[in-house]
Specification:
This protein starts with 7 loop residues before the first helix and ends with a helix. A seven-stranded parallel β-sheet has the order 3-4-2-5-6-1-7, sandwiched between helices. The protein is built from 25 helices and 13 strands. It folds into four domains: 55 residues, no CATH class; 183 residues, P-loop containing nucleotide triphosphate hydrolases (Rossmann fold, 3-Layer(aba) Sandwich), CATH 3.40.50; 204 residues, P-loop containing nucleotide triphosphate hydrolases (Rossmann fold); 110 residues, HRDC domain (DNA polymerase, domain 1, Orthogonal Bundle), CATH 1.10.150. Helix 13 links the parallel strand 10 and strand 11. The structure holds adenosine-5'-triphosphate, magnesium ion (MG) and zinc ion.
Length: 591
């Protein structure tokens, strides 16, 4: 490609010259050399490669300096968050620098901002490929709430609405376009050429791989995108990817030299507990006790069978808990209505099989209970990942027993593949899950190590470390605990996060919350009621207005000016303008 660089020495000289350039000017030449290397690697000696790495590191440093400022400013101004979570900045920096990126970050880790912030900073349009049409509306609504101009195109729209959105996109009025992979071979695909496309984000990217667990043939439509738009960075995001799935993603999407980013599996706001069934109180009563102690908070109870989901929901309803069942035996309309009521806080508890969850974005799920042991650690992790997405504390209680192992074995035996390799794998997965549940050591440490991550003992986020008996603690808690224990934990949690900054975690800074930092429970309840009223008026889910965590922070800090409110976690400029007066009035109280 580069006609002037035909010998080893010329290439070496070019690499040396690179280091003489100012850091900001390195990138374009470096990219040319990268391309050259792909074509004729033999011209590159180890010395040359070392020089190029050095140059690349310098360019990266200058990019960090360049992009950290605006990215962080956007995080604060638009999202109202004080700092990045692990991995986010690296990803943003890579795509801002035009580099492809493949990020594996667990459920709830915060993958979305890694394309939302670049979309704002780059201008033009960012395409987001996302598998679930049913979620696009909520995602776009949530973007609207914080002032990011987003839209979606999919089969649910009529011709006139499509035309309107297309015109807006062409006129450069929108920053984010969500589309399903199915749309990309048809009309959306044609539209792209006429847009000022700046970046492509592929969410749930594991769906492209046949080796993954949710293979979606339509994801194969994405294969041609990189060829069509070679200069546009592609960001592939997923919560779960084995090495094989990862290389499949990179290959199928034709990613060029992608930056690999891996988030941490440890989420300190999720409090893990494992409770062995069979001795003493029955599981139903333990569940009831836990649910009653969390009255008014949102929770999910996972059950192994449809029948168990039904009976558990019925049992709770008879005891005046707003509960419903969710499983694959319901009609699509019934399922949609349960999901909708839950997201609008009109339903507190969903008793569900694994059919429930993919793409549940509700951020204020305060607890996830497993009535039965899940069939694998992967499944368990995904299910608890639906709790505490707002970063506020949430409890995850796993009920388990050897009888569950036997039930799961029976299911495997009765399946089509009962003596195949696959069945053998499944039985092993069940046993690994049991071993995790039954361990005396730190649950987080065990869980992370299953995903090949080494973390220290959590000391505060699992029942084994804290020697807490969560079921016993819930005994006798009948009155609604406003803001719950979650709220009381809030202060120490936020301290820890501030200390950890955007990088690693600080473990030893668990300060005891002093009195001034304890949320005002009565105020929290009033704020929650206000949130619900505003959300219903606007026909959006309550958590889209403000997360639980944001309300908790308000109930601690009690800001009385707009500037004070803007300091609260999760309050950005747009929400301040929109909701600030109402919330400030509520905090000021009746006068
Ligand atoms: N830096 C941050 N500080 C505080 N909260 C954040 C930050 N980044 C993201 N969040 C919040 O974390 C929550 C989860 O983020 P997001 O929906 O992007 O998760 P995800 O990684 O896409 O998970 P999933 O795999 O389940 O889709 C959201 O409520 C988001 O606003
Ligand atoms: Mg996501
Ligand atoms: Zn622990």
């Amino acid at each position: 490609m580069d006609a002037t660089l035909t010998t080893v020495d010329e290439v070496l000289a070019a690499a040396r010259g690179l280091l003489e350039l100012p850091a900001t000017a390195i990138e374009s030449t470096l990219e040319r050399l990268r391309q050259h290397y792909r074509e004729t690697p033999l011209l590159f000696t180890p010395e040359t490669l070392a020089l190029l790495r050095e140059a690349s590191a310098r360019a990266r440093q200058s990019r960090i300096a360049d992009s950290a400022g605006p990215a962080l400013a956007t995080l604060k101004e638009v999202f109202g968050y004080p700092s990045f979570r692990p991995g986010q900045m690296e990803i943003i920096e890579a795509v801002m620098g035009g580099r492809d990126c493949l990020a594996v970050m667990p459920t709830g880790a915060g993958k979305s901002v890694t394309y939302q912030i670049p979309a704002r900073l780059k201008g033009g349009v960012t395409l987001v490929v996302s598998p679930l049409i049913s979620l696009m509306k909520d995602q776009v609504d949530a973007m609207g709430e914080i002032g990011i101009r987003a839209t979606f195109l999919n089969s649910s729209l009529d011709g006139a609405e499509r035309a309107r959105r297309t015109a807006q996109l062409r006129a450069g009025e929108l920053e984010l376009l969500y589309a399903a992979p199915e749309g990309l071979d048809a009309s959306v695909g044609d539209l792209l050429d006429s847009l000022d496309l700046k970046m492509i984000a592929v969410d749930e990217a594991h769906c492209i791989s046949e080796w993954g667990h949710d293979f979606r043939p339509a994801y194969r439509n994405l294969a041609g995108l990189k060829r069509r738009f070679p200069r546009i960075p592609v960001l592939a995001l997923t919560a779960t990817a084995t090495p094989r799935v990862k290389s499949d993603i990179a290959e199928q999407l034709a990613l060029r030299d992608p930056l690999h980013v891996r988030g941490s599996f440890y989420r300190s706001n999720l409090r893990l507990h494992a409770v062995k069934k069979g001795a003493g109180t029955g599981v139903r009563d333990m569940i009831l006790r836990l649910v009653r102690a969390r009255r008014g908070e949102s929770g999910i109870i996972y059950c192994l069978s449809r029948k168990a989901a039904e009976t558990t929901a019925e049992f709770l309803r008879q005891r005046r808990v707003r509960a419903a069942a969710y499983h694959a035996g319901l009609t699509p309309a019934e399922r949609a209505s349960v999901q909708d009521e839950f997201s609008r806080d009109d339903l507190d508890v969903v008793c569900a099989t694994i059919a429930f969850g993919m793409g549940i974005d509700k951020s204020n799920v305060r607890y996830v209970l497993h009535r039965d042991m899940p069939r694998s650690i992967e499944g368990y992790y995904q299910e608890i990942g639906r709790a505490g997405r707002d970063g506020a504390p949430a409890d995850c209680v796993l009920f388990y027993s050897w009888a569950d192992v036997i039930s799961l074995d029976r299911l495997i035996d009765n399946s089509d593949a009962s003596d195949s390799d696959n069945a053998h794998q499944q039985r092993r997965a069940v046993r690994r899950m049991f071993d995790l549940a039954d361990t005396d050591s730190c649950l987080w440490r065990r869980l992370a190590s299953h995903f090949a991550e080494d973390v220290a003992e959590c000391r505060e986020s699992c029942g084994n470390c804290t020697a807490q008996d969560i079921v016993e603690e819930a005994r006798g808690a009948r009155a609604p605990i406003a803001g719950g224990r979650a709220a009381r934990d809030f202060a120490s949690n936020s301290l820890r996060e501030a200390e950890a900054g955007s990088g690693g975690r600080a473990r030893d800074v668990v300060a005891a919350p002093d009195a001034a930092e304890t949320p005002d429970a009565d105020l929290f309840e009033r704020l929650r009621a206000l949130r619900k009223r505003l959300a219903d008026e606007r026909k959006v889910p309550a958590y889209v207005v403000f997360s639980d965590r944001t309300l908790q922070a308000m109930a601690v800090e009690k800001p009385c000016t707009p500037d004070g409110l803007l300091e609260i976690h999760g309050v950005g400029q747009k929400k301040l303008d929109e909701y600030g007066p109402a919330f400030l009035a509520e905090i000021a109280g009746p006068r």
